[in-house]
UniProtKB/TrEMBL annotation:
Belongs to the class IV-like SAM-binding methyltransferase superfamily. RNA methyltransferase TrmH family. GO terms for cellular component: mitochondrion. Signal peptide: none annotated. This is MRM1 methyltransferase. CDD domains: SpoU-like_MRM1.
Amino acid sequence: LDALCRGRPHQGVCLEAAPLPFRSLPDAEEPRPGDGESGERQLLWLVLEHIQDPMNLGALLRSAYFLGVDRVVATQSNSCPLTPIVSKASAGAMEVFDVYSTDDLQGFLKAKSAEGWDVVGTASRPEDVEGVPVISCSEFRWDKPLIVVIGSEGEGVSLHTQLQCRQMLAIPPGRALHPGIDSLNVSVAAGILLHSICSQKRRHGD
């Protein structure tokens, strides 16, 4: 078992399984059973730009699945593939929650905006954002189909992607921060932001 798992903890069990690839983005447009018409419910898609750490990717998928995100879309380039480490970090969510990919993120966001979707990005350091309004996540109001873009661990949302966003959401810190500890782990930040947004659905009874 140690050899099969390449030294990683296995808890006495090992399963050989086929790899899970990213699904093609056109498939994401097709409604699934139980989805209903898009106009009858609040849709929420999570877009992951250049997430490279498999533990972060797994944690992001786990939070997205738990909180009710409808689709997850990842960039094809400079992103972590769907590995066994991702699956374990997702606590199995990766096995039941399809992940889609795109090789043209800006084009995808522009097209969804033209369809009437609201596109918002996330900012760990609001002072680094230029030309796009930055608001606290608690001030954001969810009133149309929504795409939330999460950026890479080191760089955040890229400038080109920021320009496709109507607003950038930030999590206000609870104290004056030391210069070396000025941001949250990407999966923790995403969980806070998604909960702040999804709690509006529960309050409104949708």
